[in-house]
Amino acid sequence: MTKPTHHIFVCGSFRATGAQGVCHKKESSQLLQYFEQEASDRGLDGVMVSSTGCLKACDNGPVVIVQPQNVWYKQVNEEVADAILDAIENNTVAEEHVLA
Questions:
Q1: Is residue 90 within 8 Å of 31, Cβ to Cβ?
Q2: How far apart are CA 64 and CA 57, in angstroms?
Q3: pLDDT at position 55, please?
Q4: Domain-by-domain residue ranges, the chain?
Q5: What's the pTM?
Q6: Running along the chain, 100 residues long, what does each successive block of 10 average in pLDDT?
Q7: How far lies 27's CA from each of 5, 43, 63, 73, 79, in Å?
Q8: Alpha-carbon span 89 to 24, nearest angstrom
Q9: CATH level 2 (architecture), domain 6-97
């Protein structure tokens, strides 16, 4: 495996109790699949996508983090996911979707 240049973390809102929170209820698992497929379709071989436990930002979910920039994005849907991937391709940040 080659070390990724970017790592996208999609909140899966999994909790130690087994409960699943807001991001999961807002279909973050489909969002995870969308990021994986779209990154592949765009030829972004250096992008890795993973699911996380609860990121404790439920009011802003689904939440996505892009590393190594440490940018947190809020209320991510497929349209916002496209903007995030565009930003990765252009080495920028999708500022209008950043969680402040």
A1: no
A2: 10
A3: 93
A4: 6-97
A5: 0.92
A6: 91 80 89 96 96 93 96 98 98 96
A7: 26, 25, 11, 16, 14
A8: 27
A9: 3-Layer(aba) Sandwich (3.40)
